[in-house]
Design brief:
By secondary structure, the protein is an alpha/beta fold. 28% of the residues lie in helices and 19% in strands. 44% of the residues are buried.
């Protein structure tokens, strides 16, 4: 694959009240944008301890609304070229965010829903990327894509939360099972949350997700 031009990403952010204890980056799903998940900031971090940022995907797809992270020729297998563009753009965005905020990767959770969960797994578990505190995967998967492989050996300090609906008609539950097996086999700490629903963030999971975030990014010192 040729090296694509790296686009700059639009974003929203909600600063912490006072000095931030960490950074929570939430990546939106297919056809949404940087405004989609910013409303979760106060839900998942009600004490406003964290700096929360929601970047927007760089891609527009004809016939689809909103923004995207990659083209989907087959669920679970992103188009390599558009995936690589977003992977590089997100990596650059995260690097600039760490530099601008002064918050380290070790105090960062990368999370997202659906396609945004895929990009969170990719940038949080990918080769050569900094080791983050946590990866929050909501109704997504670890991608299979030419030119990218997860690199778990140096990431045993990274915690992973995987939440998925057993009746998900968009991203089948088997993708959650595969991702969980990969994480467990790699020696990472895994929290798995299931519900008897479809392709959504389950309201009943929100308290557990908020608690997991607080445990993964506890108050400093």
């Amino acid at each position: 694959m040729s090296t694509p031009e790296i686009p700059e990403l639009a974003f929203r952010e909600r600063p912490a009240d006072g000095t931030a204890d960490g950074l929570l980056v939430l990546h939106h799903g297919r056809g949404a944008d940087e405004n989609d998940l910013i409303g979760l900031a106060d839900v998942l971090d009600p004490e406003r301890r964290l700096h929360v940022v929601t970047p927007g995907g760089p891609l527009r797809v004809p016939g689809w609304p909103g923004q995207h992270w990659y083209v989907v020729p087959q669920v679970g297998y992103p188009d390599p070229d558009t995936f690589r563009t977003s992977y590089l753009a997100l990596g650059a965005f995260h690097d600039a965010l760490w530099e601008r905020t002064g918050i380290a990767p070790s105090r960062t959770i990368l999370g997202g829903f659906s396609m945004g969960s895929v990009m969170s797994h990719a940038t949080g578990l990918g080769p050569g990327r900094p080791v983050v505190a946590g990866v929050l995967g909501l109704s997504g998967f670890v991608p299979t894509v030419e030119g990218w492989q997860p690199d778990l050996a140096p990431r045993t300090a990274t915690r992973v939360l995987n939440a998925h609906g057993r009746r998900d008609p968009v991203i089948a539950y088997e993708f959650a099972e595969r991702a969980r097996a990969l994480v467990r086999d790699g020696g990472l700490d895994l929290t798995a949350l299931d519900f008897d629903g479809g392709h959504q963030i389950a309201p009943e999971h929100v308290p557990a997700i908020a608690s997991w975030i607080a445990e993964t990014l506890p108050p400093r010192g």
